[in-house]
Amino acid sequence: MTGKMELEYEGEQIGAQRIARDLIKRACGVIFEGFFLGIDFTPSVQWFDQGNKLLLSDTASADECVMLLESVPDLIESTLVPLEFAKSDKATLVAACEFVLEGLYAQNKVSRNEEGGFEAVTKAKRDRRGMIYEDFTDIDSFN
Q1: How many separate domains does the chain show?
Q2: For residue 29, which of 102, 126, 78 has the smallest C-alpha distance?
Q3: Is the separation of the CB atoms in 127 and 133 below 8 Å?
Q4: Which range marks the domain in which residue 108 is found?
Q5: Which of 41, 75, 78, 71 is nearest to 54 (CA)?
Q6: Is residue 80 part of a domain?
Q7: Alpha-carbon gap, residue 56 to 62, rounded angstroms
Q8: How much is the pLDDT for 143?
Q9: Dihedral angle, C-alpha 84, 70, 122, 109, nearest 10 °
């Protein structure tokens, strides 16, 4: 991975951690599309769009994580569709759901916050130069 970082590092403009996160995001996106093509995660994404957030602690047990994941509509059920393991295998279930959330993040359907949790995508968009701006096109009452 260091060779790739050296290619894109460009005089420390981006930073090694950001490049590593972007590489992982892209890789998750590619694998996610292979496994979950055609599976509808709309109820899960809408849950985040309603202002809900999800943070799975690194120190939480699998049982605790499953309890948190169950609050996201259809996430567990949709995750299990293409995979071959039992819902009772909680550690594997948590890992699979986290992978799905990373895949949804890679597709820009949910976002990640600074703490590593998942939340709704902001209305920020990028222009053709990569500059971020806020999208106010959905404000009806603004004149």
Answers
A1: 1
A2: 102
A3: yes
A4: 37-134
A5: 71
A6: yes
A7: 10
A8: 38
A9: 20
C-alpha 63/C-alpha 11 separation (Å) is 45
Does residue 142 belong to any structural domain of this protein? no
DSSP code per residue over 69-86: HTTSTTHHHHHHSS--S-
Which of the four pLDDT bands, split at 50, 70 and 90, describes residue 50?
very high
Taking phi over 0 as left and psi of -120 to 50 as alpha, with beta for the rest, 38 belongs to left
The verdict on residue 56 lying in a domain is yes
Given a contact cutoff of 8 angstroms between Cβ atoms, the answer to whether 116 and 55 are in contact is yes
| Closest by Cα among 12, 35, 5, 9 to 104 | 35
Per the domain annotation, does 27 fall within a domain? no
Structure tokens at 18: 């950001």
CA atoms within 13 A on the CB side of 9: 11
Note if the pTM is more than 0.85.
no
- Quick: pLDDT tens for 60-117: 999 999 999 999 999 999 999 999 888 899 999 999 999 999 999 999 999 988 787 9
